[in-house]
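Module 6 notes. Inverse folding takes a fixed backbone as the condition and produces residue identities as the prediction. Think of it as a translation problem where the source language is geometry and the target language is the twenty amino acids. Below is one complete input and output pair. Work through it position by position during the lab.
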C-alpha cells in the first residue's frame, strides 16, 4: 500500500532540481553501484525531501536562532555606563 505523500517542507525550483538530480544519480552510481533512471532518481529525491527535509529545515531554523541570539547578546557589549 502506498503511503500518502506529505506536503513537502522544502520545494525546489526546476533549476535547483535540475542540478540535484544529476548529482544524486552520480552519487548512486559511483558510491552504491546502483543504476537508476531519471524517474527513479526524481522519486528518491522527492522521498528524501518529503521525509527528511523537515529535519534539515528545522536544524537550519535552530542554527539561525542560535546565531541571532549570539548577535543580540553582542549588542549588550555596546551599552555604556553612566
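Target side of the pair, the amino acids:
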Amino acid at each position: 500500500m502506498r503511503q500518502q505523500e506529505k506536503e513537502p517542507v522544502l520545494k525546489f525550483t526546476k533549476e535547483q532540481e535540475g542540478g540535484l538530480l544529476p548529482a544524486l544519480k552520480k552519487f548512486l552510481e559511483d558510491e552504491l553501484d546502483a543504476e537508476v533512471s531519471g524517474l527513479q532518481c526524481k522519486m528518491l529525491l522527492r522521498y528524501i525531501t518529503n521525509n527528511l527535509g523537515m529535519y534539515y529545515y528545522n536544524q537550519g531554523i535552530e542554527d539561525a536562532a542560535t546565531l541571532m541570539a549570539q548577535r543580540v547578546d553582542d549588542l549588550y557589549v555596546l551599552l555604556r555606563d553612566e
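Reference fact for the lab report: Residues 38-75 form the longest helix (38 residues).
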